[in-house]
Amino acid sequence: MAQRYSLVPPGGGPNYDWSADHTFVKVSAADTGGQYTLMEDNLKANFRLGLHLHRHHAETFYILEGTVDFFVDGDWMAAPTGTCLHVPPGVPHACMMANGCTHARMLMIYQPSGFDQFLAEMAQMDEADFEDDAKMAALNEKYDIVNIGPMPDRP
Description:
Blueprint: E1 15-17, E2 21-27, H1 29-32, E3 37-44, E4 48-53, E5 58-65, E6 67-72, E7 75-80, E8 84-87, E9 93-97, E10 103-111, H2 115-123, H3 127-131, H4 133-142, E11 146-149
Antiparallel strand pairs: 1-2, 2-3, 3-10, 4-9, 4-11, 5-8, 5-10, 6-7, 6-9
Domain Cupin type-2: 50-110
Pfam family, one: Cupin_2
Protein name: Cupin domain-containing protein
């Protein structure tokens, strides 16, 4: 009989070690039939994600360790350990490490799924691909990422 469940051990799952974070896919689009993706994101001291939105998918963040500052729909907020933040489709948001925080870890749920596939495609790219504005725009469009601008000024 085929296995009807997925078990991912600590530190397991497809992972992408970027300059600002190290992300582990715990439940993929393939595991859920595209319904959602669950990821563990280990944020490094220089983590910053500029202002963007998603037209069709929601994101939920649950902070496991550290403090992450979020800018959501015009509001800045600190999200310490234990905080859960849900961002529906169409809501502009950005996030960065809180002042003085050198590491944070959070669970992220993307619904419907797709962000795991976005990371897998990015992992196949080289520096020239990242500098190709047309290529990046097409990739962002494919995965419902609408970049609005840089990180807003934090008060």
